[in-house]
Amino acid sequence: MKKLKRSARLVEMTQYLMSNPHTLIPLTTFAERYGAAKSSISEDLGIIKEVCESEGTGELLTLAGAAGGVKFIPKCSKERALELIEELCNELQQPDRMLPGGYYYLTDILGQPGLMNEIGRMFASVFADHEIDCVMTVETKGIPIAYATAAHLNLPVVLVRRDHVVTEGSAVSINYVSGSQKSIHTMTLARRALKERSRVLVVDDFMRAGGTINGMIELLKEFNATVAGVGVLVESKDVTNDERLLHDYVSLMRVGTIDTRTRQMSVKPGNLFDKNMEFGTEEA
């Protein structure tokens, strides 16, 4: 039990809630932790709720009754999300990011923890009202996005590998066709990594035709698992609808025309903003 001044208690309660997102916390937990009356704790939670919602950092849901409590749902306001994505679009349009073959350099962006935290918060906001058991991605560039998203949803990460690793035991492997190169690749997932009939959020850093993500979806069928949603950081628009293997997904950025001669490309906010999609909500 800690005896803290109210200001210090508010800070620590806020940190505790943010460290345990999507988790129902009984009021007695705080009352016993700080040696305070439930009425005082309720007043503190009211202040935290007001600040979080006014700043657009999240929602604090309450459930009345003996089995009730509070649950913090991380959020990113649509305005803040669009502001950050537009900044990223401008950064990606820099000519020095152009690589041979029409590719571009993205690794430095994926290596920024603070930025990935915000990207994860965006995906967590979009899929907050979905029933999800875990977040899945394929190695390697999708890993920072998957962990950031899972942290805000308080869920485990499932990692699909290109090659089987003996330390993971028996695994399920499938072949899939790359939508961009039309070549056959292999992906594998340890049998112990995913429970049967799980509901899975699939995320990745980049999608052209959707071959890799479609491969993950096919792999999930081997576990009788369900795709609860698909999120990609960047999608390419240099493929036709007929070439696209995936149509139900959320993208944060979209690469349009690429001129390899002048090293110019168009990067705009993704379909999340085109569709005017509402960020998810969850009832406690």
Automatic annotation (TrEMBL):
Gene Ontology process terms (BP): negative regulation of DNA-templated transcription; negative regulation of purine nucleobase metabolic process
NCBIfam families: purR_Bsub
Pfam families: Pribosyltran, PuR_N
Domain Bacterial purine repressor N-terminal: 5-74
Family: Belongs to the purine/pyrimidine phosphoribosyltransferase family. PurR subfamily.
InterPro entries named in the record: PRTase-like, PRTase_dom, Pur/Pyrimidine_PRTase, PuR_N, PurR_Bsub, WH-like_DNA-bd_sf, WH_DNA-bd_sf
Keywords: DNA-binding, Transcription, Transcription regulation
Residue ranges constituting the Phosphoribosyltransferase domain according to the UniProt record: 108-242
Name of the featured protein: Pur operon repressor
Complex formation: Homodimer.
GO molecular function: DNA binding
